[in-house]
From TrEMBL:
Family membership noted in the UniProt record: Belongs to the DNA repair enzymes AP/ExoA family.
Endonuclease/exonuclease/phosphatase domain segment(s): 4-248
Cofactor(s), names only, from the UniProt record: Mn(2+); Mg(2+)
Organism: Autumnicola lenta
Gene Ontology molecular-function annotations: double-stranded DNA 3'-5' DNA exonuclease activity
InterPro entries documented for this protein: AP_endonuc_1 (IPR004808), AP_endonuclease_F1_BS (IPR020847), AP_endonuclease_F1_CS (IPR020848), Endo/exonu/phosph_ase_sf (IPR036691), Endo/exonuclease/phosphatase (IPR005135), ExoIII-like (IPR037493)
CDD domains in UniProt: ExoIII-like_AP-endo
Protein name per the record: Exodeoxyribonuclease III
A Pfam family hit: Exo_endo_phos
Gene3D superfamilies, per database record: Endonuclease/exonuclease/phosphatase (3.60.10.10)
Length: 256
């Protein structure tokens, strides 16, 4: 089974790229972030014509997450991250896809830091950790996947000294991610490639993609039931070079 995550940076603006990549990569399950579209503007027919069923949690202009599946039934479990009834941002959705619970997330950026947006990001991490602890208690295998907006270590960022004050790399955020993983999750890409430079995001500015000046901010966390099932993973880096593409690249894993 091939599971992928892709921050599309606007599902309608990037629809040709998304459809081309789906045909190219043929993942079984896909988590999308930053849809930047309300529910009624999601291109459902185009996704179905590509061979995928889907559920989504959209939002006008910003945010938005979706789960797509090919030849697998999707049963929505949860829409919105628990812990704050006043949080109106569309950043989290859960579904049972086949025999696996998929949690798709788009964690807040948090800049500028310090400030209200950074405080919101840290609270969001606390809420995610609480939900993740509940998921670990389930007998169902779980994948918590998406754009976490954190570079966990220096290996995950080009020239880390330039990012020390950024909300994606501040020690509070890296500690929050570390504590989350240490609940009992497996960082899938790092398990496969413990010492390799792998980036999942390249800014549109300063020729970042061609210079390989990127960040690893899109992650797969696997519950213990799936740890031994992980057999492959990687990034479809070339997609970042396509015309009118997202600033993220698709990331994928394979489970036996």
């Amino acid at each position: 089974m091939k599971i992928a995550t892709y921050n599309v940076n606007g599902i309608n603006a990037r629809l040709p790229v998304l459809l081309r990549w789906l045909e190219y990569s043929k993942p079984d399950i896909v988590c999308l972030q930053e849809l930047k579209a309300p529910d009624e503007k999601i291109p459902k027919k185009a996704i179905e014509d590509a061979g995928y069923s889907a559920i989504w949690f959209g939002q006008k202009r910003w945010n938005g997450v979706a789960i797509l599946a090919r030849d697998l039934e999707i049963n929505e479990v949860l829409r919105g991250l628990p812990g704050d009834p006043y949080d109106e941002q569309s950043r989290y959705i859960e579904a049972l896809v086949g025999d696996i619970l998929i949690a798709c997330l788009y964690l807040p950026n948090g800049n500028p830091a310090p400030g209200p947006k950074f405080d919101y990001k840290l609270r969001w991490y606390e809420r995610l950790s609480a939900r993740a602890a509940e998921l670990l208690e389930m007998e169902t295998p779980v994948v918590v996947v998406g754009d976490y907006n954190v570079m966990p270590t220096d290996l995950d960022v080009y020239k880390p000294e330039r990012w020390k004050d950024d909300a994606l790399f501040r020690p509070e955020v890296r500690l929050a991610f570390k504590n989350l993983v240490e609940q009992g999750w497996t960082d899938a890409i790092r398990k496969l490639y413990p010492d390799k430079v792998i980036y999942t995001f390249y800014d549109y500015f300063l020729n970042s993609y061609k210079r390989n000046a990127g960040l690893r901010i899109d992650h797969f966390l696997l519950s213990p039931q799936l740890d031994e099932s992980l057999i492959a993973g990687g990034v479809d880096k070339e997609v970042r070079g396509w015309e009118k593409t997202s600033d993220h690249v698709p990331v994928w894993i394979e489970l036996k």
